[in-house]
Amino acid sequence: MNPMREPTHIDVAQVYARPGAQPPLGPSRLHLAEGRIARIEPLPAPPAAARHRIALPAPCDAHDHGRGLRTLAFGAQDQALETWLSELAREPHVDPYLRAVVAFARMAEGGIAAANHCHNTQDGKALLREAQGVARAARDVGLRIAFAVPFAGRNNVVYGPLAPLLAHLPPADHARLIAQRQPSRTLQENLALVEEIAELSHEGFSVQYGPVGPQWVDDEALASIAQASADSGRRVHMHLFETRQQRAWADAHHPGGLLKHLDAIGLLSPRLTVAHAVWLDAADCALLAERGVMVSANVSSNLRLRSGMPPWRRYLDAGLRFGLGLDGMSLDDDEDMLREMRLAWHQLSTVDGCERFSLGDLFQAVCGHGRASITGQAPGDAELKPGAPADILVLDLRHLTRDRLSEDPADLLALVVARATKRDIQHLLVAGRTVVHEAHCRSVSLPALEAALLAEARAARQRHPPDDAAITRLQGALRAHARCGCAPPFSERETPWI
Ligand SMILES: [Zn+2]
């Protein structure tokens, strides 16, 4: 294949047009034009250079945050979400473009063609400027990014009233936490910002409503978002039931069931994606499936933040559609979507000890449902076929197959899921552009951007070092608060994921 940025064709030994759902097409030339697959021409044999290459629909990251500085890099150690959130205060303030472009280039190198971007603001009063940086980064790297505009406004720092938490802290800390409880933007400002940010839209940048989570957003805002989504057709992306404490808060505040409440507000619709969804019971899963809501399951993140595991069996029982997300917290902190697929696959393929979930289902989740959650298009769009967007992952299997005795192509896909990592990526094409070639991002210079980001972050950290003692005191108070009975009681629910 021609390694130019917009190749006219790619040759491969196998085309997995619908991986796992239909047999591969064999040696082929994929002709590309205007960002789409023009036609797929069978070849008698692949050219020598393409003998080990296979083409797949490109994976999608259904939930992420686009932080160029990884959380471990700025000193936020993995731990339970509720105390981990206070560690985010350590993140140095950097240029929004640099922050996003480094994240997106790394995600591209991890095999990701499209991603949800749940934006975490660095400056609540500068959201539009930050969105401009993200939109430019999406264009430069060449990914398809859905920017979820954050809506929050209550229960910051702790679920429920602040006073019982403050009782565990010295008075000198109170003013800062009281200030943190104040929303930085009103509902009307946020709704107006969605419209302004939507004006930045391009092929690789679209806008979604991003209520951060039901415990952090009041009913007036949730109802307004539901109505605005129905009117505009824009999607909604929200964290839901990530942790047991969140479930406990919901059970205490909505004895009739949080999901029924959200349904009555009008929020549950096919335009909604909920991220994490770890602490769902069977009735929740049935209701979400009935309303056509999509889930982003985030396995690595749930492990690193001690949240539990997605209740896979309940998802499958209900027929709930889901994609996979990295949440900026991949298992090896390397943004490798192929590893994430493997992690989910090993869990899902053992549900009930039988084959309820196939390789075809895995690729449909990651390339189909995940993509639909980001782009709003039909899941079938992930199929490699004439007319489809040229979002294609080409893997070179030389490394994976070096010790393989069988020549049978039938077991190749299982080998890919069992072994492939981002190092095996020959090409990632998005809308026909070469974003990654031989495992390195080609649309931007990641090493140079990383160096610039780190220099800026180090300078910012020197100017405003994190207040380690205050973070430690807050974490101690949060733990004491959870133990003393003034926080919502922990639920006794289990996560029987197999
Ligand atoms: Zn998240």
TrEMBL record:
InterPro entries: Amidohydro-rel (IPR006680), Metal-dep_hydrolase_composite (IPR011059), Metal_Hydrolase (IPR032466), MTA/SAH_deaminase (IPR050287). The keyword Ribonucleoprotein does not apply. It comes from the Bacteria. Residues 55-435 form the Amidohydrolase-related domain. It holds the Pfam family Amidohydro_1. Keywords: Hydrolase. Transmembrane segments: none annotated. The keyword Hydrolase applies. PANTHER family: AMIDOHYDROLASE-RELATED DOMAIN-CONTAINING PROTEIN, AMINOHYDROLASE SSNA-RELATED. Belongs to the metallo-dependent hydrolases superfamily. ATZ/TRZ family. This is Amidohydrolase-related domain-containing protein.
